[in-house]
Design a protein that fits this description.
This protein folds into 3 domains: 3-53 and 94-183 and 231-262 and 299-358, 3-Layer(aba) Sandwich (Rossmann fold); 70-91 and 264-296, no CATH class; 362-475, Immunoglobulins (Immunoglobulin-like, Sandwich). By secondary structure, the chain is an alpha+beta fold. It has helices spanning 97-103, 120-138, 149-160, 165-168, 185-200, 208-221, 224-227, 234-242, 345-358; strands at residues 3-11, 17-25, 36-40, 70-76, 83-88, 107-110, 142-147, 171-177, 253-258, 265-271, 285-291, 295-296, 330-334, 362-368, 378-387, 400-406, 417-419, 429-437, 445-453, 457-459, 466-469, 472-475. Strands 1-2-6-3-7-8-9-13 form an 8-stranded mixed sheet, sandwiched between helices. Strands 16, 17, 19, 20, 21 and 22 form a 6-stranded antiparallel sheet that branches. It is elongated and about 105 Å long.
Length: 481
């Protein structure tokens, strides 16, 4: 895959300058009618999490694969009994979220967040700068796909810009993958380990090796980002309190959660009795092994008792229940663990349709106009538009309308906007009947219409363009000039 970097320069509240590199995938054609997609990775993530999960964090094991019942190990010079070894789930070739969404025609951006193990407030400052850059550069709405803590980061962003209507109206919505919206008790276990390590330090304060070992353990659990994932953290409780006051612009959020803490399968492989019986052959012993029931880490083992996430209903880091968000548009239950959500085809398939629910899309199914026009004379025209995505609304400061796309916003035909008669649900059609006035000077003129959300974006495909020459209308399917 081919990527290019786009630099976003920004300054944090203390006045320190930073630069964030956005990665843009170049291998697939972009559907210009679709919004931009910004991908947010989770706790301690990097730029590969949403791009190439087979690289980081891995976990692309096929937990549904099973080995053959018996495996021929060949001829050997000596007998053998007991345990031969272990067989592990093989890895799969997977597709990450960025290439998957790019294949669907989305312009996608991915980046490595600042403070991946630090305070989420710092990461939110960076995210706001990235969002404002994308809005300024591309003039398109933004969809978010967020894994784990990335969903909390998105919610934190919404509270940062809650008074900025222009930004909120351009946020199309989000799909969160296994986000601990209500927190994770794994974070509490991590803090318990940290406290235990702190107490152990007093046992042998002068033993360098012992203290180094404790440092290694503590480094895995003692980070601000982990503390913030606790169900009782100020981040979780603060967001919950802030969200009791609705945003001025409603933002659609779809959620998903996993129910399988299994990381991989591991089958003990045992010699059968024939492996110890000599045969008339050189070498004389023919080894054959068979597999007993697999041992599944964190799946029905005593380790699973450490916290609810490791028992039935969790995905290693968050229970399915805690992945819900009050006011969510929908919720998908997935039988996957936390890392598999980074590439699972079922999750990607479901998300594809949920993203369609949050975008504006449509196309022209019919248009009618006179074949001849005289300059300065008024004529009836008709356009039928089909809604292919989220409902078109008529209320509010940002209504949906039919607009003159080419020449864009011009009054050369006497009118450049037409209001909807009412809300238009997905997969419904609406017909616009109105009059236009032919330009007073005979010549060549474009005449092409398209849907838009006022003050937000033009969207969908436009109607076929036509041109006038000395009053004669000629169909012409060329692109706008």
């Amino acid at each position: 895959m081919t990527y290019t970097n786009i630099a976003v320069n920004w300054t944090d509240p203390s006045g320190v300058a930073h630069q964030t590199l956005l990665q843009k995938l170049l291998d697939y054609p972009v559907n210009s009618s679709l919004p931009v997609v910004l991908l947010l990775h989770g706790l301690n993530g990097n730029i590969y999490h949403m791009r190439s999960p087979e690289t980081s964090p891995g976990m692309n094991y096929d937990i549904y694969w099973t080995p053959p019942d018996d495996i021929d190990r060949g001829w050997h010079a000596y007998p053998n009994v007991g345990l031969y070894g272990f067989i592990f789930s093989p890895k799969k070739t997977v597709t990450g979220w960025q290439p998957y969404l790019a294949q669907q025609g989305y312009l996608t951006f991915n980046y490595a967040q600042i403070a991946a193990l630090g305070n989420i407030a710092d990461a939110a400052v960076e995210l706001e700068a990235v969002v404002r850059y994308l809005l300024a550069q591309f003039g398109k709405r933004i969809l978010f796909v967020c894994h784990s803590r990335g969903g909390l980061l998105f919610r934190t962003l919404l509270q940062r810009v809650r008074n900025d209507i222009d930004v909120l109206t351009r946020i199309a919505g989000a799909y969160t993958l296994h986000t601990p919206h209500q927190g994770s008790q794994v974070a509490d276990v991590a803090m318990a380990i940290h406290n235990a390590v702190t107490n152990l330090r007093t046992i042998a304060p002068d033993c360098t090796d012992f203290q180094t070992a404790l440092d290694s353990i503590d480094d895995q659990v003692n980070h601000p980002a982990i503390v913030e994932l606790s169900p009782t953290s100020s981040v979780i409780t603060g967001l919950r309190q802030q969200e009791t006051q609705p945003l001025n612009v409603p933002i659609t959020i779809h959620t998903s959660g996993g129910t399988n803490p299994r990381l991989f399968n591991m089958w003990p492989s045992w010699f059968d009795a024939s492996s110890a019986i000599p045969c008339f052959n050189l070498p004389p012993f023919h080894w054959t092994t068979y597999q007993s029931a697999p041992f599944n880490l964190l799946d029905g083992t005593p380790v699973a008792d450490i916290c609810p996430e490791e028992r039935h209903g969790g995905d290693v880091l968050v229970t399915e229940v805690n992945s819900h968000l009050p006011g969510e548009a929908s919720h998908d239950v997935q039988e996957t663990n936390h890392a598999v959500a980074l590439w699972d085809p079922t999750e990607q398939y479901n998300a594809h349709f949920k993203l369609k629910d949050m975008i504006s899309d449509g196309y022209c199914t019919a248009q009618s106009f006179p074949q001849t026009m005289s300059p300065g004379v008024s004529y009836p025209v008709s356009f039928t538009m089909r809604n292919a995505a989220a409902q078109w609304q008529t209320a509010g400061n940002y209504p949906f309308r039919l607009g003159l796309w080419n020449p864009q916003d011009s009054l050369v035909w006497g009118v450049n906007r037409r209001n909807l008669p009412g809300p238009v649900p997905r997969f419904s059609e609406v017909k616009f009947d109105f009059n236009v006035t032919a330009p007073s000077v005979a010549g060549q003129y474009h005449f092409q219409w398209r849907m838009l959300q006022e003050g937000v974006e033009w969207f969908g495909s436009s109607c076929p363009t036509v041109t006038t020459r000395s009053g004669l209308l000629e169909p012409n399917h060329s692109t706008p000039s």
